[in-house]
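Input sequence (472 aa), recorded before submission:
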Amino acid sequence: MQNDKTLTVLPPSLPKGGGSMQGMGETLTMGGPMGASTLTVPFPITSSRGYAPQLALSYSSLSGTGIFGRGWQALAPSIRLRTSHGVPRYAKEDTFLSPDGEILRIALNAQGKEDTRVTRSLQGVTLPASWRVTRYQPRIVQDFSRFEYWQPDTGNTDLPFWVVFSPSGEVSIWGKTDLARIANPADKSQIAEWCLEESVTPTGEHIAYQYRAENDAQCDADEKKQHPLSSAQRYLAQINYGNIKPQASLFALDKTSPAENQWLFHLVLDYGERGVTLNQPPAYAASQPDGWLLRSDSFSRFDYGFEVRTRRLCRQVLMFHRLEALAGRTVANEKPALIARQLFTYALNADAATLNGIQAVAYDEAGAVQTMPPLSFTYQPAEEGGWSGWQPMPILEKYNLLQPYQIVDLYGEGSRGSCIRMCRGRGGTGHRSGGRANPLPMTPWRLCRQCPPSRMRACLSTLMATASWTGW
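Predicted structure, token format:
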């Protein structure tokens, strides 16, 4: 039988993506204005009822060393003092920075004065003492959040904290307790950072952040002697969210915090208190609370005027669920079940620890281990050594800003290499320094034909940003 239908031949094609093999949700970004590469790896955080902490592990080639090794950061947001203009004085003239790094300024009221009030209540909760509340706003307003700085009023012996009101109705409190503040161990009133401690939505959903203070655990005698006041650092230890009973006000304003069995989800950051064996699931409670490990590259920072020493590395991130409570059953002393886990491996040395790999692990109902291929990292090693072609310039051995010298790009080579000297109507030029692979030798000083007659503060400049230097 004859068939006159057209025969359709499908061309070969590659299968579409989105199959079963997926990564950890990492995002890699290259380039940027500074040429830095960035990588973001999200933590295994359960979404809950749509309100969960936003926290991820981020790498930047411009970042320094942190609790995840060189270049990696996953810090909880904080309000802090600015240190780019010097050590804070812990007085009114200090400048605050928002969690986004924007400068905070005191907001003005309708009369053009500082918006300040005295109150004894917050979110309808009566406080034990009076507080002086000052409203702040970012220098560049982005999301119209309202920042309030709560300082103790007369007769109040508590320490200041922050409250932030977002346009969505979310209210967060920062640095209400001692563990949520980075302060001078010798003077607790000198607070440098207020860490995010709790947030609540208009529907009563809460997220609570818990921190640990640095201590001398696992430290030898030399470490303790060289760093006697090293308890200022704070480590994010646990995040509780998915509260069973809603509450409109912050739990931090109550006299007692809710018990742990009143939360459905627990995100735990482990610093060595639990086991790190792949095939053995760690327990919810730390087997050795003071057993967190000492890193080999402990470091300190002093930009706040006191030492903030970091001695710990985050070894793993654990996601726990209360399965019975999620099913609507009440079980006394229920132990949270480990659902997901991120295990970190480091290359440890005395210079800087580097994160070499991230292993994503999950567990089924029987406790069997389910793993994904690890995410591995290699780094370009820093090569020591320098160029041996530099030549000394004795004329600049005692160079300082008070002497009449100026380093300019006199020949338009793209780098400053010529030295100009002005002295009471006379000027001279020295040749280029060794800025190239084949440097030219420095020439003797030469007298400039045209130079300012007697102005000591004159300088050579070009208005058109070209190599043509035509005026002083």
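Checked by second reader. The radius of gyration is 30 Å.
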